[in-house]
Amino acid sequence: MSEPVRSFNNRAPNMYTGKIKMWDSDRGFGFIKRDDGGPDAFAHIKHLSSVFRPESGQTVAFDLVIDERNGRERADAIRLA
Question: How many whole angstroms separate alpha carbon 55 and alpha carbon 62?
């Protein structure tokens, strides 16, 4: 099996970083402000890839995927950076 293509900074091409802009712990979702200046990414607690308590201001790494239900981008495999 081949390795995924890596970019100049040794990250997989679909891996992004950003800061949690807002997190509603009662409802289990929030938004991530992307470091690349792209639109904020929707984040849901079921898409965390590690056990941590999301809080506003935390720096995270994540993948962007298309949500099958609504066709919009969302964050996936969210982890602390």
Answer: 15
| pLDDT bracket for residue 76 (50, 70, 90) | very high
- CB contact at 8 A, 29 and 42: yes
Distance CA 4, CA 36 (A): 21
* Alpha carbon distance 9, 13 (integer Å): 10
Q: What is the pTM of this model?
A: 0.81
Closest C-alpha among 77, 72, 45 to residue 61: 77
CB atoms inside a 10 Å sphere around CB 40: 15
User: Where does the pLDDT of residue 12 fall: very low under 50, low under 70, confident under 90, or very high at 90 and above?
Assistant: low
